Structures are given as C-alpha cells and as structure tokens.
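Our preliminary data section would be incomplete without showing what the modeling component actually yields. Below, a chain of 191 amino acids is followed by its predicted structure, encoded as tokens that our downstream tools consume directly.
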Amino acid sequence: MRYQISGKQIDVGEALTTHVKAEIGELVDKYAQRATECIVVFSRNAHEFVCETAIHLATGLSLQAKGNATEVYAAFESCRERLDKQVRRYKRRLRSHNSGRKGPVEFDAAPSYILAPSEEAEDAEPETLAPVVVAEMETKIPSITVGEAVMQMELAGQKMLVFRNEGHGGVNVVYRRDDGNIGWIDPRNSR
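Predicted structure:
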C-alpha cells in the first residue's frame, strides 16, 4: 500500500509517520485487505489538531474519516476510531464486495464544474442565465450496483453519490435525505 502522510503548515515527524503507517496497516489487514493508497493530512484549526484520512481500496471504494483533538496523536486516534467503526459496520460487505464481480470497478471520466454564487440582489433579474465557472475538474464516476453505491456513500461520509448503474448502464444518484433515509434517483424508471 502506498502512504501519503503530510501536514498543512505542520511538520509531521518520523515517529508520527511510523505510528500512522502501523495503525492504518493493522486496520486494513484486519478488515479490508485490499487497500492501494492511504492519504493522511494533519492540519491545525485554532487550538485543535485535525486529522483527515482517505483510504482507497482496490475494489474502487474509498473510506474517509476526520478526527480532531488538542494533541496530534489524539486527533489521529479519533480519526482511526471513526474509520474502524465504519469498516466494522460494513465488514461482511467489504469482504464479499468482489465475490460476484468478474473484473475491477470501472470508472468513467466526467467534467465537474464549480460555479460562482450570484452577487446580485435576489429580486433583481440576472444579466445572463449562464453561471460563471470558477473551476473545471475531472471527476470519476464508478460503474457499480445501487447497494455498492449506498455503501460507498456511507463509507466516504458523502451526502450524495453519482454513479453508473451496473444493471442497465444509466446514470443514477443516491443521496442522504433530510429525514436520515437514503434517496435513489433512477431517471430510466421515470417514464
């Protein structure tokens, strides 16, 4: 597994790097067993240290967690505990994720845009209906089942996930509703 451990305006020493590698390695071996990359970023927010971790699995899933505390090691431990809790919850599904899959998860590339907020008064008519594009990036859209999409959204801590439905090849969306349930948008079934 490839590790990328860094700090935002914080010097990450050799001891912390070794500790992070040992703890993450143990977590991955215990549950997932197929991690390809681990990205850990330490930063400081006022008097607290913040640790953000993303683990990318060979199956195409990603685990993400964030922890904060007044000590840097405690912030990492908080983050690791959250990762542990997430992975434990999905342990059976993570291990059997590829059991029915003949090949690895495929990803399609799609453009992603960040739009500038409107600075005009709410009552005023906008000069043009075309929004101002602030940034343009490329996003990967996985080809997975609905169940895998819900699991990926939960593991990554996202509010929504756009994916290509493996059942029929159409683009679908799963999202967390305000009432705590999961919503699924499948445009193909709207006819």
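The longest strand covers residues 133-144. The chain has a mean pLDDT of 81. Preliminary results of this kind motivate Aim 1 of the renewal.
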